[in-house]
Amino acid sequence: MKRLAGLVAALALLVALPASAQAATCTPPKYPGSGYFTSLKATKVSCGEASKVALAFHKCRTKKGVSGRCVSKVRKYACNEKRTTISTEINGRVTCKYGSRKVELTYQQNT
User: Which positions carry the signal peptide feature in this UniProt record (predicted)?
Assistant: First the structure.
């Protein structure tokens, strides 16, 4: 009976691992310029790749100035951005998807 209980507990742990391993809260990369990334979340992708996507999105977004928009794919990810703007800053929430992979980030940029 104890052996069966131990086996059930081990199986429950194995079943729980893939779900928790698929999504991770990552340390955001250093923001290039005046502002900062405030959060970074990776689903089915490494934190390293998520950081690269965040930086590539920033580069795409600021190509035409600090208030620019990114309308092309970055590192094969299609990104959707929602933002609020006041006279001194932009606060953005971005979701980038590539198949089942997803990178979510938030940023604050001074204008």
Answer: 1-23
Q: What is the 3-state secondary structure (H, E, C) of the chain?
A: CHHHHHHHHHHHHHHHHHHHHHEEEECCCCCCCCEEEEEEEEECCCHHHHHHHHHHHHHHHCCCCCCCCCCCCECCEEEEEEEEEECCEEEEEEEEEECCEEEEEEEEEEC
pTM given for the model: 0.80
Give just the sign of the alpha carbon dihedral 53, 58, 63, 67. Answer: positive
Gap between the Cα atoms of 63 and 73, Å rounded: 14
